[in-house]
């Protein structure tokens, strides 16, 4: 039996991993939504430190903009709602369920750990093959080459998921999106300063993504954040709702499918890109994807924040009338 | 044990923790947070696998994780909208019962 020795591991790495594990436990164990959400946001920040340790700057940028930014905004926005009271469960039953869950979790973890302990230290063949083929992909950044050329079917399906989520969310809360009518001078200034800066940052991330960390996902996340801030600051044309937003979101998906057809006609393989026009095609599709993802994320945020405020306003309007009744 | 192995085991632990909580927690928003925790574990596991060996990390798992982050954000968004709808319907039902 091998003794697990931590002598090769840096103390700081161990501390960060321990902190990640503790915040993960807190995020699932705290019964109040506010506490669980805060623990989850801290968990995301600590994970970003680990992304730097495993040489993944692209993931760190995406996580900062999406995991911490947009998803954090969605969760925090959901907190102003009242947490519904949980039905009182039999205490013994709750303990039994937790015990069974812990036992099954331990078995699953043991199985996963067995697989991991047999992994070779050598990387899989796919990585070197992908790195070798980068020069034939049209772009020089390996991750962009994988996302938009070698495995662009994954990216096509991903944008399909995003479109369905945005359309579904919009359908559930179509007519009750709250509007910010009087943002006040401070928020107006924030909009003037931050929104153009974020749009510029999104454009830079998009173009830089062909040769260094960055790309459509990160740029789309930053654009989505810009649209959300613009909406919260009362910039009306930036409202990502209704038919216009839907057209922009669906355009990315349709253009990607069209690109697949062009690939089929030009090279004989669905979604294949020819080196002579691959760079132009990748940059064009990335631009459309950035707009699609950005508008879709803003649509999701608006839809998630819509109903409750309208309902609260209804209740507030009803309250005096009810109070006046004998 | 190397640093990458530590990251892999930590990722597997967080994944199992998140999946178990997703199945067992009743509150909808907390369940969504648990699902996000599980996805964090998967990402840690995949990125540690990508960084094995010397030289540049494997771009394929890194691209998968990037795709996963965007999909998870979309799932979080629609799940919050659905949770809000469910809770509102529950509230309406309570009002009718009263």
TrEMBL record, chain A:
Residues 19-81 form the MrpA C-terminal/MbhD domain. The lineage of its organism: Bacteria, Bacillati, Actinomycetota, Actinomycetes, Micrococcales. Signal peptide: none annotated. The keyword Transport does not apply. Residues 188-299 form the Na+/H+ antiporter MnhB subunit-related protein domain. It comes from Microcella putealis. This is Multisubunit sodium/proton antiporter MrpB subunit. It comes from the Bacteria. The keyword Cell membrane applies.
TrEMBL record, chain B:
Belongs to the CPA3 antiporters (TC 2.A.63) subunit C family. Pfam families: Oxidored_q2. It is found in: Cell membrane. InterPro entries: CPA3_antiporter_subunitC, NUOK/Mnh_C1-like. The chain crosses the membrane at residues 6-25, 32-50, 62-83. It comes from Microcella alkaliphila. It comes from the Bacteria. GO terms for cellular component: plasma membrane. It is a multi-pass membrane protein. Keywords: Cell membrane, Membrane, Transmembrane, Transmembrane helix. Gene3D superfamilies: 1.10.287.3510. This is Multisubunit sodium/proton antiporter MrpC subunit.
């Amino acid at each position: 039996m091998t003794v697990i020795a931590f002598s090769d591991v840096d103390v700081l790495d161990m501390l960060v991993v321990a902190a990640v594990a503790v915040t993960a436990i807190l995020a699932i164990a705290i019964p109040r939504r506010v506490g669980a959400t805060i623990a989850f946001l801290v968990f995301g920040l600590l994970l970003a430190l680990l992304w730097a340790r495993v040489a993944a700057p692209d993931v760190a940028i995406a996580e900062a903009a999406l995991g911490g930014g947009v998803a954090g905004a969605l969760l925090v926005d959901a907190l102003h709602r009242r947490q519904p009271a949980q039905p009182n469960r039999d205490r013994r039953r709750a303990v039994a369920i937790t015990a069974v869950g812990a036992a099954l979790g331990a078995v699953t973890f043991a199985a996963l750990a067995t697989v991991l302990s047999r992994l070779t230290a050598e990387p899989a063949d796919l990585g070197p093959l992908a790195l070798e083929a980068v020069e034939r992909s049209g772009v020089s950044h390996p991750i962009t080459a994988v996302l938009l050329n070698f495995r662009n079917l994954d990216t096509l399906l991903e944008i399909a998921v995003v479109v369905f989520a945005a359309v579904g969310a919009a359908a559930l809360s179509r007519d009750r999106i709250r509007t910010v009518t009087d943002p006040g001078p401070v928020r107006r200034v924030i909009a003037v300063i931050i929104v153009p800066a974020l749009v510029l940052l999104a454009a830079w991330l998009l173009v830089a993504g062909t040769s260094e960390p960055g790309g459509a996902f990160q740029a789309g996340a930053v654009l989505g954040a810009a649209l959300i801030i613009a909406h919260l600051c009362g910039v009306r044309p930036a409202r990502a709702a209704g038919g216009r937003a839907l057209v922009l979101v669906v355009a990315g998906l349709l253009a990607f499918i069209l690109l697949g057809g062009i690939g089929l006609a030009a090279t004989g393989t669905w979604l294949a890109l020819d080196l002579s026009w691959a760079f132009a095609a990748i940059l064009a599709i990335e631009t459309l994807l950035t707009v699609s993802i950005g508008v879709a994320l803003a649509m999701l945020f608006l839809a998630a924040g819509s109903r409750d405020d309208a309902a609260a306003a209804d209740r507030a309007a009803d309250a005096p009338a009810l109070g006046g009744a004998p | 044990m190397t640093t990458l192995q530590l990251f892999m085991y930590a990722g597997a632990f967080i994944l199992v923790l998140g999946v178990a909580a997703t199945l067992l927690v009743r509150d909808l928003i907390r369940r969504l947070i648990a699902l996000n925790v599980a996805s964090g574990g998967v990402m840690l596991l995949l990125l540690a696998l990508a960084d094995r060996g010397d030289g540049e990390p494997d771009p394929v798992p890194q691209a998968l994780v990037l795709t996963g982050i965007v999909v998870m954000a979309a799932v979080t968004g629609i799940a919050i909208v659905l949770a809000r709808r469910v809770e509102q319907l529950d509230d309406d039902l309570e009002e009718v019962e009263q």
